[in-house]
Design goal:
single chain; two-stranded parallel sheet; 403 residues; Rossmann fold; disordered C terminus; 14 strands; 27% helix; alpha/beta; 11 helices
């Protein structure tokens, strides 16, 4: 049984992160973001905001990358830090960047651990799917070239989307995330993040196969994790790989290994030699997205809290794995840059090597309300007593005895 007091102590750093601007907020850089808010044509049962970026003169049939931020981050902050809009300009693809609302989760996390948000046709998963449909219809996206990636809670939600909508996504990249089905309640969420109970590959794969009426083909998957991650421990990457090698019918051992930008990469190949799964483990890196900042074709983004300049750009290599950097893409010689890019680079936050407050259970669900979507209570705009919020939620979940 997990020590919830210790888990709550780790989550208490949230207030300090909030006073420093949160994860990847980047101050005024967000004001210069190229992302534009849109409104999905769907019912938006998960009550998410929709942001997008479509480079100038993007032709019909371009690819789309869905980018999911981590806890306390915003769409614009994570895009700026991870460099996705820079890559979109450089290589000619569109972005969809959903954003969590504090009314849904006071810590800004996608609710990757709630069954009502992680099933096909329901909640936040359904909202993201509707947003993809809006982009395909309104922006001329090739529905065969839709990809998804995310960090931490966004990485776990990436697992959700790949499992629940495998016919929608050609590929996905999970950065410091968790496998699909790792948690269905508060206790399991903590256990998966901090202890990661092992399961047989067939059991993990079965969770994906049962999530949607789909028999293949399956999305290609890229997995990234730091070996010093104490927030979502690295064994979660092992379980993700077990899940997706089983789904693809691949052997547990990788087909090949190599060194890329100084870091180990493993790859699993199909019978025809196609790369179906790749895995990067970044030695000594804590929780966050690996970056290589700079102006070169293989560099982008800006270092900040949980956006770590370790000399390899996960965003670039993920785009490469998706096939978005091949010849014929837009030349890298004249990319658009954010107005804020000329400012001095922000230092990595002092909390960057500490635990991220991955999940916060302060939302109130009115499950008795007629019809779906559910009604959610608006989070207060004033500063919250984080300990009281977590304690109240754990008590309501039956995991802590009330006073």
């Amino acid at each position: 049984m997990i020590d919830f007091k210790k888990a709550m102590d780790r989550l208490s750093d949230w207030e300090g992160l909030r006073t420093t601007g949160g994860l990847g907020q980047f101050g005024t850089a967000a004001l210069d973001s190229p992302l534009q808010e849109m409104h999905s044509a769907g019912a938006n049962p998960g009550n998410l905001r929709m942001f997008a970026y479509v480079p100038d003169d993007l032709p019909d049939g371009a690819a789309l990358v869905v980018v999911l931020h981590g806890c306390t981050q915003t769409a614009s902050g994570y895009d700026y830090g991870a460099g996705w809009s820079t890559l979109a300009d450089r290589y000619g693809f569109a972005l969809l960047v959903p954003e969590q609302q504090r009314a849904n989760n006071p810590n800004g996390c996608f609710n990757w651990f709630l069954p009502e948000d992680t099933q096909r046709g329901r909640g936040e998963a359904a909202s993201i799917r509707q947003m993809v449909g809006t982009m395909v219809r309104e922006k001329g996206i090739d529905p065969r070239r839709v990809f998804i990636t995310g960090l931490s809670a966004g990485g776990a939600m990436t697992s959700v989307m790949l499992a629940c909508y495998p016919e929608v996504f050609a590929g996905g990249a999970i950065v410091a995330g968790l496998p699909y089905g790792a948690a269905g309640n508060v206790q399991q969420a903590f256990e998966s993040m901090l202890q990661c109970p092992s399961r047989p590959a067939r059991e993990w794969g079965g969770l994906v196969r049962n999530a949607a009426p789909h028999d293949g083909p399956w999305p290609r998957v890229s997995v990234w994790h730091g070996s010093a991650d104490k927030t979502v421990i690295p064994s979660n990457a092992r379980e993700i790989l077990k899940q997706w090698t089983d789904v693809h019918g691949l052997k547990a051992a990788p087909s090949a290994q190599e060194t890329v930008d100084g870091y180990p990469r493993q790859v699993w190949l199909s019978d025809t030699g196609e790369e179906l799964i790749e895995s990067y483990t970044i030695p000594q890196m804590p929780h966050g997205t690996p970056l290589a900042t700079g102006k070169a074709d293989f560099e982008c983004g800006a270092a900040g809290p949980f956006l770590l300049d370790v000399g390899i750009s996960s965003s670039f290599h993920i785009a490469k794995f998706f096939g978005l950097t091949k010849a014929g893409a837009r030349p890298a010689s004249a990319p658009r840059e954010h107005a804020a890019a000329s400012r001095a680079r922000l230092p990595v936050n002092a909390h960057a090597d500490g635990p991220e407050p991955e999940i916060l259970y302060g939302e109130v669900l009115d499950k008795a309300a007629p019809g779906y979507p559910r009604h959610r209570q608006q989070a207060p705009s004033s500063r919250m007593d984080i300990g009281a919020v977590i304690t109240k939620a754990l008590t309501a979940a039956g995991l802590m005895r009330g006073k």
